[in-house]
Design the sequence.
């Protein structure tokens, strides 16, 4: 058994360094292989960006209010007419999170918030006699679908003349641009630019139902999650097959799921060369006896199938003695179940910050 502690996804295979492509011109040592590369399928991008909820129709008067609000997107005078006199807006960015009050202030802020027109669609609403709320998305129609720009929550109030106005608007936007799909051809372009010859492509399938990445998936049926995992692992191997001389595929799964052993066998049959797991996302506890027993089953099967193993243990929180105990448990109780294959400990044990205690 060979155990590698890698801090970077770039490490030369057999410690070989080559001068390749543009790197040769610059005479800069370049790793032969990127051992930790992720593609991004449309399904994974959808989870990262947030799978949109279905929209709903609004009462005619409220629907017209949202249309007027969106139509006046960059016109503070027109915006002012849809807000109540004491309206509130949430202002949130990297520097502040504050509430502004007053029709003119709210309208002025929102008129400068967007660079292009948009529409506002609702996913839920609740209306009373004099007040109500609407939650939904800011969207922009596109040729191939809809771009979800952000989400909002509106508080509505009925004025003395019987017309609805917006009493509060709380917008929310994800940081950065939406995640786009990353395909095998994109990976090859990046490798060529960096002067790297090959890459190990790690499937993201194990993230479905993940503790932080996809918590909503945990409430789907096990059968539905398994279908997503199979689809993602199959997508990954198809992408890698387009460049068999440059890319190698590792499948991914949650080792605690009931399907784990069946999927691991299927991965070997479909051409994956290794297994990638992320213990934090899978809620694995290396001090839990049942978890350890299950991990031993998975590691042992990977060993028999001659599948290399890459794992984000990410049990590096807590006092140094706790981290050290987790490392000892993993090495002495889990890793020993796969003595014939290489086990790579991604990110020097973590998956986040480097952990000195894990190496003691």
Sequence:
């Amino acid at each position: 058994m060979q155990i590698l502690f890698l801090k970077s996804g770039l490490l030369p295979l057999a410690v070989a360094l080559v001068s390749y492509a543009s790197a040769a011109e610059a005479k800069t040592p370049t790793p032969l292989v990127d051992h930790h590369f992720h593609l991004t399928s449309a399904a994974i991008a959808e989870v990262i960006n947030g799978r949109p909820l279905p929209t709903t129709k609004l009462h005619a008067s409220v629907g017209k209010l949202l249309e007027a609000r969106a139509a006046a997107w960059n016109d503070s005078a027109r915006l002012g007419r849809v807000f109540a006199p004491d309206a509130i807006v949430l202002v949130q960015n990297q520097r502040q999170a504050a509430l502004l009050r007053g029709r003119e202030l709210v309208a002025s802020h929102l008129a400068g918030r967007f660079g292009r027109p948009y529409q506002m669609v609702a996913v839920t609403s609740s209306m009373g006699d004099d007040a109500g709320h609407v939650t939904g998305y800011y969207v922009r129609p596109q040729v191939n679908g809809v771009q979800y720009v952000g989400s909002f929550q509106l508080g509505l109030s009925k004025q003395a003349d019987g017309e609805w106005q917006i009493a509060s608007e709380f917008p929310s936007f994800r940081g950065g641009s939406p995640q786009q799909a990353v395909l095998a051809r994109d990976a090859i372009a990046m490798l060529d630019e960096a002067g790297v010859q090959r890459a190990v492509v790690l499937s993201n399938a194990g993230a479905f139902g993940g503790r932080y990445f996809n918590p909503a998936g945990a409430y789907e049926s096990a059968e539905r999650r398994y279908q997503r995992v199979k689809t993602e692992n199959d997508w990954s191997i198809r992408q890698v097959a387009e460049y068999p001389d440059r890319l190698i595929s590792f499948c991914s799964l949650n080792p605690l799921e009931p399907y784990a052993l069946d999927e691991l066998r299927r991965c070997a049959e479909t051409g994956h060369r290794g297994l990638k797991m992320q213990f934090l996302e899978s809620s694995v506890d290396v001090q839990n006896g049942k978890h350890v027993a299950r991990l031993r089953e998975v590691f042992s099967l990977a060993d028999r199938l001659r599948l290399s193993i890459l794992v984000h243990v990410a049990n590096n929180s807590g006092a140094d003695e706790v981290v050290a105990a987790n490392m000892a448990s993993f090495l002495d109780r889990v890793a020993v179940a796969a003595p014939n294959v290489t086990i790579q400990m991604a990110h020097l044990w973590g998956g986040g910050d480097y952990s000195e205690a894990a190496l003691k």
Confidence is low (pLDDT under 50) at residues 7-24. The two ends are 19 Å apart (CA to CA). The chain is about 30% helix and 30% strand. The first strand starts at residue 2 and ends at 6.
